[in-house]
Amino acid sequence: MTSKNYPGTYPNHTVCEKTITVPKGKRLILRLGDLDIESQTCASDYLLFTSSSDQYGPYCGSMTVPKELLLNTSEVTVRFESGSHISGRGFLLTYASSDHPDLITCLERANHYLKTEYSKFCPAGCRDIAGDISGNVVHGYRDTSLLCKAAIHAGVIADEVGGQIGVLLRRGVSRYEGILANGVLSRHGSLSDKRFLFTSNGCSRSLSLEPDWQIRASSSWEWINETGGQVRWSPGQARLQDQGPSWASGDRSKNHKREWLRIDLGEKKKITGIRTTGSTQSNFNFYVKSFVMNFRNNNSKWETYKGIVNNEEKVFQGNSNFRDPVRNNFIPPIVARYVRVIPQTWHQRIALKVELLGCQIAPSRTQDCWKQIKYPFARHQSAEFTISYDNEKEMTQKLDLITSDMADYQQPLMIGTGTVARKGSTFRPMDTEADEAGPAAEAGGHYDCPLPAGRHEYALPLTNPEPEYATPIVERHLARAHTFSAFSARSGYRVPGPGPTHKHSLSSGAFSPAAGYQLPQSPAPADPGYDKPKGGGGGSAAGRADPACQKPQVNPATNAAYLAPRDCLRPLNQTAVTALL
Asked: What is the pLDDT of residues 60-70, one digit of tens each?
């Protein structure tokens, strides 16, 4: 808030009153940045603050005035009165609620502070306050620049509402380059001992516009040059970083329909600013002086970017010549896939080059969860864990079955000797029971993701109707009786050893290799024993009369699935060996 004509001389014989309020329950902070009132007695020229219970002032002349007033109320009336005077700038003050004790005025400069890093709260309305700034957001500002005005220029805050700024003090540079940005013109500056920059959220990178199909326009200018060649100022030439002429509209009249330049970013992105230039060609003095922005997403209507306070279409200040780039920031940012630049005023002909600033949208929790489901075992894996079975070949039913359509996560994995490797497994690890007991579960783990209704969290191994263990094939050899006895004791299977009357083993081959034979017939389905092979005419007599070819006698009281024949066997001929193998 300032007196009329500030910083020029305030008018004679005026009375101005304004009431300032902040939200109920908050205290009001007033900071006086400047006070220059000619009267020494405050009889006719003064500044006075009045609340429902207190009065502060009047202030005038050369009296000592407090730089800050912390009021015990949320509302105060400011009264400024002037009589006949010759000079005097009047006053400048800022105000905020007690939520912002670090409030500063629009007149504060960076060289007023010695700290290398600090944070301050800027009021609204500092853009048009008299005072220079030098530099830019990329390389920094000269330390003699106004802090809040530089913050508006940098796009850190909006002039309509002000806001918090973070300042970093650094060593100065030999020269500061000035540009026009957000309606504020910074000037070129000379060497200084210090410079300052603003902390940033990092969302101000150039958004790539590589393929020509990303840029479209309502029309394009085409003309024939003196050599008879066709020159076209197409929308594909509207990228700021490209050399050569820009895009230019086909109609140069001021009363034609709205021209536009449309940009497709390919996906929804966060757009925080735009840089524009004119034709960039000295013999074509074309540029856009002001423009508005439209935006939309897939299957939605075009929306107009509006101001923060008045909720009306916001008109951005464009270029003042064909050459120098101008930056405008979007506060709040635009979140969209498509944007349109719609020129409002221009010089001679609409001509534009553009660069959008922003960043990718941070993925949501739902997107993170899907990635973790798709690659569920990327998290840290613990040691192996055991899945046990009982003697009746029934699986322990402790795990729920996933009924989703992701069948590649339901395959059984290396179930053999009672263990299964954790890596790549779909079975619930036993260490998750402890994780589920407390809220400090591993963040982002694939077990934390919500599952759709009707789907369980973990998969069971596929059921196996066959015996879990095969009956071992035992090679009956006299010298291995002790080995079979030891194996039987360890494994729990009852496997008979060869009797002492055996004279030959199966591997000794008590038959003539030259003897002819036929392949044995398959045993009958109801008869699981061994059948006697039918020998050929040239077969060995010993082979035909040998009782070892007889069907072994199995004790019917035992389980056939786990017991080998109990009778002592005699050597078989080669046909029987082949059948067994």
From this structure: 988 888 989 99
